[in-house]
């Protein structure tokens, strides 16, 4: 079976894991700090704070923004479910808006129409490695005092008009899951240029700790322990995971170059197929192709599923793009949103197919994928 993706590991990860284990420091420590500095430098932000997952990063973002019950958070309807969960975690309400089918990302006009006096934040998802339309999003939100959370789970290394994502809003949230360009097995990070947000995230990921008490209260010594002024969580990345992350960041340019080459080649090979819609909207130059997601121009979910079943029988693994979140049980039951309210998200869920793409994928393997897709979709 040709996998939909494969992580890229070599002796560099093994060497850093060995270094970590020999150091005897395996929880969050010096390697985590190295990893955070590499992320911050790459994404041109003041702060990068590693945590256990992008789900944790999104939760930390809503906590840092002090969102609360009664607040509304605008979320694109076609995204991984935790983009919406992050609002629910703090009692806020996710307000779903439709997407632009040419990019799979949030439609700015749908965002504008969904804003109410209760809107406190918007989650701008850079889906599949393609940046959301940040100029339009920021133009709509800044004058209204609405915070922007960049869900950059798929977007390590992604650029928007030449600028790296993760520092284009108030907070960026990254994933290092095995399907992502950089992986630590599981893991995530929060990025920001705001000192207040960084301080809150640093505290909340570490049980709510906020540093040692003033020596004016008690002289510091072996007995000194942290203050706990926030109700926090244990969401720290370990140095074992960070060791893998440091090695991965060292080869990020190569990984991105390979994915972009494969993404462009898919688009060229599929260019004559009018039955396939390719991911060619938005700032394609900055696309990192964490996933290469096509869409059927005609037909619906049944035809898409039949094509995916045929691909599986040919030994080619695929997946749908992602969810139309309001269709999922929790959100459908709680908010009762109907499919006709978000036609583009429904169309994207029902007709999208994620094709295999990963560093080390051979041209012959890619040719085989395209040949089978061409035969099935012609």
CATH architecture of the largest domain: 3-Layer(aba) Sandwich
CATH-defined superfamily of the largest domain: Type I PLP-dependent aspartate aminotransferase-like (Major domain)
Count of runs of 4 or more consecutive helical residues: 13
Number of strands: 16
**How many whole angstroms does the radius of gyration measure?**
21 Å
Query: Order of strands side by side in the largest beta sheet?
Result: 1-12-11-8-7-2-4
User: Main sheet, how many strands, which sense, barrel?
Assistant: 7 strands, mixed
Low-confidence sequence ranges: none
Through-space gap between termini? 23 Å
- Oligomeric nature of the chains: single chain
Shape, per Cα inertia axes: globular
Instruction: Indicate the percent of residues in helices.
Output: 25-40%
Percent strand equals 15-25%
Overall pLDDT? 96
Order of helices and strands: HHEHEEHEEEHEHEEEEEHHHEEHEHHEH
Domain count: the total is 2
* Class based on secondary structure composition and strand pairing: alpha/beta
């Amino acid at each position: 079976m040709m996998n939909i993706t494969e992580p890229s590991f070599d002796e560099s990860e093994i060497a850093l894991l060995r270094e970590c284990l020999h150091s005897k420091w395996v929880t969050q420590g010096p390697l985590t700090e190295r990893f955070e500095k590499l992320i911050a430098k790459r994404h041109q932000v003041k702060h990068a704070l590693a945590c256990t997952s992008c789900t944790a990063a999104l939760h930390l973002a809503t906590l840092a923004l002090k969102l609360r019950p009664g607040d509304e958070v605008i979320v694109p309807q076609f995204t991984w479910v935790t983009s919406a969960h992050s609002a629910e975690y703090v009692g806020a309400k996710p307000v779903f808006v439709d997407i632009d089918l040419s990019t799979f990302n949030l439609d700015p006009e749908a965002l504008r129409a969904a804003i109410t006096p209760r809107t406190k934040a918007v989650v701008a998802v850079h889906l599949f490695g393609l940046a959301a339309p940040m100029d339009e999003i920021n133009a709509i939100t800044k004058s209204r005092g609405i915070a922007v959370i960049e869900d950059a789970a798929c977007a390590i290394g992604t650029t928007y008009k030449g600028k790296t994502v993760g520092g284009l809003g108030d907070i960026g949230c990254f994933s290092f899951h095995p399907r992502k360009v950089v992986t630590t097995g599981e893991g995530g990070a929060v990025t920001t240029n705001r000192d207040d947000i960084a301080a809150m995230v640093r505290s909340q990921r570490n049980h709510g700790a906020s540093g040692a008490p003033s020596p004016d209260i008690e002289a510091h010594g072996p007995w000194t322990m942290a203050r706990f002024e926030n109700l926090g969580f244990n969401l720290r990345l370990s140095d074992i995971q960070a060791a893998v992350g440091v090695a991965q960041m060292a080869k990020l340019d190569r990984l991105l170059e390979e994915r972009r080459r494969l993404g462009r080649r898919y688009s060229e090979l599929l260019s004559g197929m009018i039955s396939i819609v390719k991911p060619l909207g938005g700032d394609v130059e900055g696309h990192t192709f964490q996933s290469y997601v096509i869409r059927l121009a005609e037909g619906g979910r049944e035809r898409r599923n039949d094509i995916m079943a045929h691909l599986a029988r040919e030994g080619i693994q695929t997946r749908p793009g992602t969810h139309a979140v309001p269709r999922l049980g929790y959100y459908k039951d709680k908010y009762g949103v109907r499919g006709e309210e978000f036609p583009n998200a429904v169309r994207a869920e029902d007709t999208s197919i994620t094709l295999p793409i990963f560093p080390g994928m051979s041209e012959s393997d890619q040719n085989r994928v395209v040949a089978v897709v061409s035969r099935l979709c012609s």
